[in-house]
Each structure stands twice: as structure tokens, then as C-alpha cells.
């Protein structure tokens, strides 16, 4: 029987570095989720009139998680597909897509709301990843170079669609929302949320898939530098790359925040450049790095779905228990469409950001123990 730590040490440096980056970014995503449930309710970190540099930064660094997940998933799918026929790849991707979409609708939506009536249904990262993989199942039949060019075109040119706003609840409108336009769709007592629009997120997944054979340490550094520089050029010119241009503010600090306030929903070209660029540079720098600290993060990154879902459960449950212990009602944190409205029962709920960071550290160590147990249990089943 092999110890999970020994198994990790036998991994090639490329896989280890990917899991390390995923682990680091998962811990940052957990910080942002802790902020959502424990900081002052309905606070918008991107509102320059009310935000602080630390609050803005706390949200901004979480942006790196989703693009990294989509791109690295694409590279994993490329490696998995190499020994299979196109038809086998198609069936395998469709099964994975169905599993992810089901997980989003049944599990992830419940963990975010704890509402047994599912009155809030969202298309978030897991569902968007599933839809993107389902689309890849069919488009992978295209020649690789053509699919690569198509993916780049999606990323670069999707802002040309920004001028086509759609309203209503017709099937065609809903399809458009899923493809390109973030939308909150109220319907009676239900609320449907489309956050992760498919065009740019599929392009990221497809880029990882079509450039899998190019994945080299030197390539990562060069691409990372190019993307980071491209962000500063595009953002500095302020005419293309993000639907929300930056504006000179009354203070230098707020001007900097405005400059880096890029659009995630839908993912803008500026957003992709400033997240993927530094991530590639980090992947280049950490390859071959391994010690107790990196093993700590790899424990999270080697089981990202388990870590993500468990962390959401732990954070939401802890918030409900805290609400009950501090004189409120745990049912206030059953998230419904009313929870998104200003002036709701949660308007006076929340803690300073320093408290959020302390809670985040507590959650990390709790989750670390659970993830270690999960790895130990899963390794016993495979021996």
C-alpha cells in the first residue's frame, strides 16, 4: 500500500506544478467564498465608491481560479485523449459533461443555497465547464489547427457581440444568455442566473486542449509575458478588450483599482490576459519546486472537485451555525431570490474583512484534514 504523499512525489513535475497552481488558486477561491458568506452581505468589491483596496484585492485575486481551471482541464483532456479514437473521445467527453452539469444543478446549486425547493438555479463554473466539454466533444472532430484558430477568434472577437443585448425569456434569448450575455432571469418565486457565458470559457478549455502538445516550460514563460503585456497595452488604450473602460478617479489608488477592474461576466479579453498571463509565468517558475508547503497546496489541487464542493458545504454550514449562535435565525442563510435584494433580512449581517481572513485560515486547516483523509481513503480503494 502506497502512502498518498509518496504517490505525489512520483508524479512528473508538469502534473505536480499544475496541481500546485490549482491548489493555491483553490485556497484563494475559498477565501472569496468565505467573504461571500461572512463579510457584509451584498457588498460589491468592485464598487469604487464603497470598496477598499484590500476588499478589491481579495476579490481580484480570486479571478485567477476559473481561467486556470478551464485551461488546465483542457490540457488534461488532451493527454487523456491521445490514446483514443475521436469517437471514444466524443463519448467520454459527453459522459463527463453530463456528470458536471448534473453536479452543478443538483449538488453545487444546493450547497450555495441550502434551499430544498431549488428556487435559485445558477450556471456557475461547474455547469459552464460541463457545457464547454460537451461542445468540445463535437468540435474536437475539426482539424486541430482550425479548432485552435477558432478558439483564439472566440477569445479575441467575442466583444463584437457586446452590442447585441437581448431581453425576454424565450428559448432563443436563454440560449443567447448562455452563450454571451450574463443574465438574472426572475420567474415567479424562482431566479435563474447565468454568470459563466460559454463563448469565452469554451475558448479557454479548447485552447488548453489544442495547445496540449505545445505545453513546455519555455513556452509558458514566453506566452505569459506576452499575455501580461497585451493586457497593459489593451487596457491602457482603453478602446477594446473590456466593455467597462477604466476611468481616471479623484485619487491615484482608485485610478489603479479602476484600471484593474476587469469584467468577469462575461469574461473579457482583458480579464483573460491578466489572469492567464501571470498564471503561465507562475507555472513556469514553480515547475520542479517541491517541499512541505507545496505538498500542502497539492493536497487541495489533486482533488479540485472534492475540495471545491466540500469547502462550499463547510463555509455555508458554518455561516448558518454562526447566525444561530449570534442571535439570528439559521434559516436567514437559506439563499432564495430575496437574498439578492438590498434591504433583506441579511442587510445587517456580516463581519470586517480581518475576521473573514481569520475564518479563511481556520477553514483551510479543517479542509486540509478532510482532503488528506479523502486521499488516504481513495488510495486504499485503488490498491
UniProtKB/TrEMBL annotation:
Membrane-spanning ranges: 20-40, 60-80, 92-111, 117-139, 146-168, 188-207, 219-237, 267-286, 298-321, 349-371
Q: Which UniProt keywords apply?
A: Membrane, Transmembrane, Transmembrane helix
**Domain of life, per the record?**
Bacteria
Q: Quick check: keyword Membrane in the entry?
A: yes
The parts of the chain that form a coiled coil are none
Report the protein name in the record.
Answer: Uncharacterized membrane protein
What is the species listed in this Swiss-Prot or TrEMBL entry?
Pedobacter hartonius
Lineage from the top down? Bacteria, Pseudomonadati, Bacteroidota, Sphingobacteriia, Sphingobacteriales
